[in-house]
Amino acid sequence: MKVILAIGPIWEYKRPPLSLAMLQATLKNKGYKPKILDLGLDLYIKNKFLYKYLGLLSYLYRPEFPKLSYGLISIAKPKLSLSVERIFKENSKIICFTTYKSNILPTLYIASEIKKIDPRKIIIFGGPACSIKKIRDFIRKKGVVDQIILGEGDLALLGTLEKISKNKKKLKTRQKDINRELLPDFSGFDLGNYERKSLPYSTTRGCYNNCEFCFDIVLWKKYKFKKAEKIFSDLKKLKELYGPEFFLFADSVILGSSRNIEDFCDLVIKYNFKIGWVGQIKPSVLNKNLLRKMKTAGCMDLSFGIESGSQRILDIMKKNCRVQESIQIMKFANEQGIGVTALFMVGYPTETWKDFFKTLKLLINNKQYITAAFCSPTSIYPGTSLYLNAEKYGIKNRDSSFWYSKNNNIFVRLLRLGIFILTIKIFKK
Ligand code: B12
Ligand code: SF4
């Protein structure tokens, strides 16, 4: 049976989406004929301006204001209609979409148009956006999606397809052992059209920490990671098949425990495997010796969730990390020649100007170790502890980007963001 695996704008134009590669591997393994459609990449190639416009708008989509949200994307409708045409060309009854917060609205628009033209088409949604109840309700209300699948999707999608094809055989859809996960299948992607010659690969699910604001626990529930041997052998195969220059580990915290990181590096070094890799990590699993080994094993850049220069704020966030420890690890990484990307948040509930200036001080005092720094105003994700504890902080309007509490509102957050960006510009080497 032919099945379309699609992703709408916007997600990524630098490298292919891993979700579709993983779903494709699982479906092919069971004899289905998946067809990959990266509609975001198509749009990026045809109209970069519109792509970026949709990216900017994705911050404004509000399920509670559907008319306004749809109004915002109306400028893109002619181009999105081309995506609909593209899908019909494939002549498949089943169309699956990967959804993220950044592409949910255009994707829902495309799905509605498909159903308008042919109500017999079966539309399935999965991906992180579906894990947000408010968005799920928004999708259901639209009435064009036949099935929404939450969490790890490969086996669940197989189960749904089996039902559709009326094959009675029952499939297990419980959470799988990621050490037995199939190799992501990137065939059928226009790999030459992505901006970078790199591939995403996932080594973990979730995170071992449980920061108050983080969506990971809502999305993945339990933390698990692949064994070093599995990661090594998968990367070798992917390198042979597609020849990427480096891998992006598509995880919140890469490679699992310190021991697993070390085992992975040992294998890369022992077999002289020439490959680069980048990803996000928590400073607390690292030390100087491990960083040295990571560099030898191809680590090019690490992103650290530093969040704040105020220990009081880190403690409230339940970050389980000392400010000094983060600084030390950034310094060690830099000394080894590993790029250091520092990620910050501003406007966390109870953050005062004094706390914020501690963050700026951290940035300025350690600029020599930091390759790139990014900052975002605090968002409250449904289902996180921050969302559930909103009352404790006196937060009003927790479902909106315009949430506010005493001495904290969207203007304060944007002002701090502006000052942060200005500081980077002034102090850039
Ligand atoms: C790597 C990553 C990126 C990379 C993507 C690289 C790539 N080409 O793949 C980059 C750096 C580009 C990125 C960017 C962004 N990201 Co990001 N990213 C991640 C991260 C760490 C891993 C994503 C991943 O690939 N996972 C592995 C794959 C296999 O998992 P998956 O995509 O979720 O797919 C599985 C299931 O969801 C499901 N599934 C997926 N699709 C479908 C479809 C069907 C039909 C079915 C049945 C199932 C199904 O099955 C898959 C296999 O199990 C996640 C956090 C996390 N730990 O998941 C955040 C995450 C996905 N990102 C997020 C966000 C918000 C963004 C940005 C919008 C951030 C920003 N403010 O700019 C941007 C958007 C893109 C852009 N235009 O810049 C959010 C999404 C929130 C949401 N609810 O939608 C997450 C969850 C982080 C978070 N905690 O908030 N990101
Ligand atoms: S360490 Fe990072 S990924 Fe883990 S819970 Fe905290 S913010 Fe989320």
Explain what this protein looks like in three dimensions:
- By secondary structure, the protein is of the alpha/beta class.
- It folds into 2 domains: 163 residues, Rossmann fold (3-Layer(aba) Sandwich), CATH 3.40.50.2300; 232 residues, TIM Barrel, CATH 3.20.20.70.
- Helices cover 42% and strands 15% of the residues.
- The strands form 3 sheets. The chain has a 6-stranded parallel β-sheet with strand order 6-9-10-11-12-13. Strands 2-1-3-4-5 form a 5-stranded parallel β-sheet, with helices on both faces. A two-stranded antiparallel ribbon has the order 7-8.
- Helix 12 links the parallel strand 10 and strand 11.
- Helix 15 runs parallel beside helix 17.
- The termini are far apart.
- The model has no long low-confidence stretch (mean pLDDT 92).
- Iron/sulfur cluster binds next to loops.
Number of domains: 2
Strand order of the largest sheet: 6-9-10-11-12-13
CATH architecture of the largest domain: Alpha-Beta Barrel
Euclidean distance between termini CA atoms: 56 Å
Contiguous low-pLDDT stretches (5 residues minimum) are none
Secondary structure: elements and pairs:
Blueprint: E1 2-7, H1 18-29, E2 33-38, H2 39-46, H3 48-57, H4 66-72, H5 77-89, E3 94-98, H6 104-117, E4 122-126, H7 133-142, E5 147-149, H8 154-164, E6 198-201, E7 204-205, H9 216-220, E8 224-225, H10 228-242, E9 246-249, H11 258-270, E10 276-281, H12 288-296, E11 299-307, H13 311-317, H14 323-335, E12 339-346, H15 353-365, E13 372-377, H16 385-388, H17 410-427
Parallel strand pairs: 1-2, 1-3, 3-4, 4-5, 6-9, 9-10, 10-11, 11-12, 12-13
Antiparallel strand pairs: 7-8
Residues 10-12, 15, 17-19, 22, 55, 96, 98, 100-102, 124, 126-129, 132, 149, 152-154, 156-157, 200, 202, 215-216, 219, 248, 250-252 line the site of cobalamin.
